[in-house]
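Researcher: Go.
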Amino acid sequence: MKLILLSILQSALAVGGTGLMTMAMHGRMTGPTSLIEGALTPQGLLGMVLLLTSFVVMAVILTFAKMSVYVPLNTGIAFLFTVIFATVVEHERINIPMIIGMVLILSGVAVLANYRVAE
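Model: Structure:
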């Protein structure tokens, strides 16, 4: 249960940070000055803080979890948070293949969660 809760937290922080950084950087030139200006906006700064915090949570997770269990679990959860972020913040539409994919991912997360508990 500890692994699942920390994976959810880590994924939420990583996706939120990446989303905010994307919003801060979108439409900017790729030059150093433009990137620094984008990173120093409120969205950019908060995004960097969230990403750094997600890295700290990941480091904590890796002190006790098997990488072969954590990485697939985290990837699945991060995908779900990405879809949620894209629909809520970016107003993207969810289609049938995405719903089927999310169901399959949730099934995989459930299998991994039960595998971890069974050890």
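Model: The chain is about 80% helix and 0% strand.
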